[in-house]
Amino acid sequence: MEKEEKAILTDESPDVINYRGVKAMPFIIGNEIFEKLGTIGTSSNLMVYLTSVFNMKSVTAATLINIFSGTTNIAPLVGAFFSDSYFGRFKTLAFASICSLLGMTVMMLTAAISKLHPPHCGTKETHELCKEPTTSQLAFLLTGFGLLITGAGGIRPCNLAFGADQFNPATESGKKGINSFFNWYYFTFTFAVMMSVTFIVYLQSNVSWALGLGIPPCLMFISCVLFFAGSRIYVKIKPQGSPLTGLVQVLVAASKKRYLKQPDHPELSLFNHIPTNYINSKLPHTDQFRFLDKSAIITMEDQIKADGSASNPWRLCSIQQVEEVKCIMRVIPIWASSIIFHVAIVQQHTYAVLQALQSDRHLGSFEVPAASYSIFSMLSLTIWIPVYDRIFIPFLRKLTGKGDGITLLQRMGTGIVLSVITMLVSAVFEEQRRTVALTRPTIGTAPKGGAISSMSTSWLIPQLVLAGLSEGFNSIGQIAFYYKQFPENMRSIAGSFFFCGLAGSNYLSGFLVSVVHKITENQAGGGDWLPEDLNKGKLDWFYYMIAALGVVNFVYFLLCAKWYRYKGAGDRVEVAMEAKGSSKHVV
Length: 587
What we know:
- With 587 residues, the chain is mainly α.
- Helices cover 61% and strands 2% of the residues.
- It has helices at residues 25-43, 46-52, 58-112, 135-165, 172-207, 209-229, 244-256, 266-269, 319-347, 351-357, 375-400, 408-439, 461-485, 491-520, 539-563; strands at 5-8, 16-19, 362-363, 366-367.
- The protein has a two-stranded antiparallel sheet. Strands 3-4 form a two-stranded antiparallel ribbon.
- Helix 3 (58-112) packs across helix 6, helix 4 (135-165) packs antiparallel against helix 14 (491-520) and helix 12 packs antiparallel against helix 13.
């Protein structure tokens, strides 16, 4: 077991950090396992829950889930800001964990108490109409969603960083401990997904929604108990102030000096003070976004302190600050491509579930829950990661001469191509599923009234596997890309940046679903693309449309990648997607 390690907080402070390392891990890893089980167990089957228990139309349910998922993914940016600026990671995690527990409890109550959801729809034989949820029932449901969003906003940006805080990064054992924690974190995530989309989803779909949604809050309660049990031995880093302040200062100063002339030799004439013990790597001057350089021009009104820093940082910024802002601005166009990329992945968690509901889900006498098929995406991702690391990368390393085999941008571009193929395969499956349902005997009626096709749901597996592979290339590549390209003091923001892209995808997907439904429902020729009964719709056309957007997005990504300049590259010309004629490790 790792010995307790001590480290001085700063040169000026006598405070000593007592790193407990491995001793804190049972509490943190245990907290992670039960928190993920609770969170994923609550959210993984929402499409079926909203359409079958709350009697929502599939378009309404898909739109609500996209809004919920989008807000859940953008909340970590807000959580990271408050954690870094005011509360610290421990207090943020404590508050967020309690919010998640309350949110899961509210979701359980919506299923357990009959007055909190509309009555069950009758069959066609009883001629009973489906009653929509009342305003108060919707309000209670949305309260649960709001608490879950608040919980995710605090937990997602802080849990990884808080676990890493328990190890001394200045020692070899501390570095190994951090790597070990990351591995265990990924394992707990995979384990939680496996359990949630199989056992918990089965209980929800086949036994009882009240029981299936009652297990997550119990697991989250255990998570909270474990988290608070280790409170006395945790390393609790005090908030250092948000690094976003420096970013805003550059924008404000550049705006104030927008009428000044650009200097002829910016490397020599611009303000270039770097504080002592500055953790960020020094960056060379670049010519991109030159209007920001004006924030570092020294004028008669600017005053310099004795230590060399600016008296008013909202009027005068260092060229180092300017280059850090440029790093972020260069990343934004690349980040924008991730929004359309993830729209294809989002469909595998919404409309793919509806496809499964209207397909043959039987394995012998056992009927697989529709939401459980998403496990194949996680399995393909889990299997692909070691294959990529141990086989694919060494092969490409020999082929290209680069340390990582391919650059991060090449990896992300491959993921975009795979996402387009995913939508094409999804469209082909849907076309065949609908044809079989309309031309051959069906095997029953889906919960929403459509006939169940005799085509096996196993044909969904190829598109789900492709979706997992595309995430293995693009999503993991994105995380590494942001981590390396953001300034070192903004890596918590870099993690939130990925979730912001997911949020944009959820919102865009919800927008596309609503617009396509409204435009096509009254169409004279083809009819509604996205009706309640998929057998009467054109879901495959919707998938082809997303594939076409993916092609446009790939062309846009190629242009951005060719323009992109890696952090620290200065004004040297480096082609991001291809480093021809050079064995230099680009990323």
